[in-house]
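This section describes the prediction task in plain terms. A model, or a person checking by hand, is given the sequence of a single protein chain and must write out its three-dimensional structure as a string of C-alpha cells. No templates, partner chains or ligands are provided. The sample shown here is typical of the held-out split.
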Amino acid sequence: MNDTTQDSADGRIRAVLADDERLMREQLRSRLMEVWPELDIVAEAKNGLEAVELCREHRPDLVFLDIRMPGLTGVDAARQIVQLPDDDSWLVPEIVFITAYDQYAVEAFEQGVADYVLKPAERERLAITVARVKKRLAQRSEAEAGEAPAAALPAGQPMQQLLHKLSAQLSPGGAPKYLQWIQATVGQSIQMIPVEDVLFFISDEKYTRVQTAGIEALIRKPIKELVDELDPQLFWQIHRSTLVNVKAIAGISRDFRGRQLVAVKGLTEKLEVSRSYTHLFKGM
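The expected answer:
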C-alpha cells in the first residue's frame, strides 16, 4: 500500500489501484507509467475494503478496480466509492474496471460511464482507455467551469444502473431482486409501505425519512444501502442523502445560489441536487 497522503500540488490526476494480485498491480502501474507518465498513483489496495478506505483518505480523480477480489468485489467497492463524496469539493471519481472476462468489459463499455482494462494490461489497449478517461476528466473540468454541458459531470445514475447489472452478472442468482416493500415506523406503529408509493427517501445521521403522499415514516437503513436495493430506473440519487422517485418529480428550479432544486408532486418541499448529480436534469 502506498502511504502518499498529501494532495498533488501541481494539479495532476490522482489515482488509486486495487487488485488482489500483487504482480497484476505492479504490471498495471508499470504500463500506466508508460502511457500516462503524469498520472499520480497515490495508493494501491489489495482488496475492495482497502480500496474504499484509500479512496476515502485520498479523494482520487480515478480508481482502477479489479472486478473479482476477495471479501468485497470491485463492483461492490465501486458502489461504496460512488457514495463517498459528501460535499461539492470532491466529485465521484472515474471508474476503470480490471477484468479477465470480456462479458463484463462489454457491459461497462456499452454504458459509456465506466471503462475497462482486460488482464493482462496490454500497452496499446491501455492507451485507448487512458485517452477516454482523459477526455471525460477534461469534459468534467469544463463543465465545472461552466464551459461545457452539465452532462459532462459524473454519470451518477447510469453508473448505478451499470453497477446493478455487473453485480447481477457476478451473482449466481442472475437478475437483481429489488425491494418491493419498506417496513417503517409511523408514530408508534410499524407499517408496510409499497416502494412504488414512496416519493423520496432522505437521510440524517441516524434515520432515513420515507415520504409518501399521505404519511411520513422513519427507517434505520441508510441511503447507501437503499441505493443497492432499489430499482435504479425508479429511484434516482440526487444527493448523498437523497433518493427520489422519478415518477414523483414535478419539475426543476434553481435557488439564488444557482443550486438545482427538485419539486415533488403534491408537496411544497423541494429537494436539493448536489453537483455530482446535476447532469440528470440537463436542459432543465
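For orientation: The two ends are 44 Å apart (CA to CA).
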